[in-house]
Amino acid sequence: MTHAEEQQLAAWQAKINAPASERKTRTQAAEPSAITAPTSNPIYNAYWKFAAERQSVFYKRMRGEPGPWSQDPIIQQYTFTNAYRASDRASQFLIRNVIYDGHENQRGPEDTFFRVLLFKIVNLPETWEYLQGKADLTWTGDKATSTPWITC
Length: 152
Fold this sequence. Notes:
Elements lengths: L2 H15 L24 H21 L10 H5 L11 H11 L9 H14 L2 H10 L18
């Protein structure tokens, strides 16, 4: 351990072992002078430019505008996840067919939670539809008529 690391460790130990009256609590606000504005740099700027362009492409596609939707060759050539996770194909399927499938009022929260976890394991609509045709995809199941989901 370097000398600087030893000093930092000693400072942390002193804070931890200080009497409660001398320690700051989580609810105590930082001094206004200690808060500084984020600094801009080329990487930060490039990230936000890319995010804004990607979102612009999303809006143009949703409006039905003909492509290309961007002048950026990378955005034209490659596909990217949506800026809003709930907008992607698998998330839309999860919302419409796994959570709100028309039977959500007949299921308890345990079953809905289980269905979401199970879908996120496979994360493919086609696999979900296959499994749904083979078994009752709920945690509790219809114990009188169905086999446990795990035997499918």
